[in-house]
Amino acid sequence: MSNTNITLLTSLIIILIGYFLKKYQVIKETEGKVLSKVVLYVTFPALIFDTVSDLEIRYALVFLPFIPLAFCLLLFSICYVLFRNQPATIKGVLFMAATGFNIGLFAYPIIEAIWGKEGLQYIAMYDLGNAFAVLGLSYSLGSAFSPQRTGSKRIDGVYILKKLVRSVPLVSYVVALLFNIMGLSFPFLINNVIGAVARANMAMVLLLLGIYLNFRLDKTFIKQLYSILFVKFGLALLIGITLFYILPFDKLYRTIVLIALILPVGLTVIPFSDEFGYNTRFAGAIANISILISFVLMWGLIMVFNLA
């Protein structure tokens, strides 16, 4: 068995451990929120600093943040045409699901295990654009189409800006890039602490994915659920494979772009749906099923295109 298959199987087993810990109530899903905060506020920012602060800035990297933004805008445009007449309680969920990827709580540990530090550096730059798509575009769409919204109520741009500024991962990206550009570094001891905390991210994220997995589906909206996933992953495969062959960059760069485009729906669709009065069970179903689809597609693409 190849190292890649072993890595993916290992990741799957850790996810399943998290799932069965929740299933048999060793850990409750509500307790998973504590672990989620540890990841978002501690291990993930540490991994960002460890990855981005010594990144070799090249002109090719500048394009990466714009790829998720462009893809999300295109996907939203298609979804708006397809789903504009859907019920108010799910229409915004469909639009938010089209605008963002689950990178920090899905992709990082797998990419780190398969492609190492260089792969992490590429996905980190991609995730910089994704952060703006999720916290800016997705949140704005959720607000704009909310069933709680009155006709005269405007989108609160100041509030959205505050969400961006208060996003610990996004701030970590910006600060790490500034450190990189200015040639700054932390003292040796702090660097060691950051590195140690960053290494804990992989296992914690995979366990968290398992804890959040939920296979209960609301059959009322099963057609819409499969429709959005078919459109999202179909377009992602079409654009991802096209870019893999036409981008004038090295194979790992093109590989990360291809893999990044088939990543799951961002988990923020769930809290955003709750905030704006959408059907949160529908949002959770989209997020969970997209994780399974993404994992299978990732594995298949790696094997078919010999990406590892």
UniProtKB/TrEMBL annotation:
Per UniProt, the keywords (alphabetical) are:
Cell membrane, Membrane, Transmembrane, Transmembrane helix, Transport
Location relative to the cell:
Membrane
Specify where it is mainly localized: membrane
Q: How is this protein situated with respect to the membrane?
A: Multi-pass membrane protein
Task: List all membrane-crossing ranges.
Answer: 6-22, 34-53, 59-83, 92-111, 123-145, 170-190, 196-213, 225-246, 252-270, 282-305
Q: What is this protein called?
A: AEC family transporter
Q: Which organism is it from?
A: Rhodocytophaga aerolata
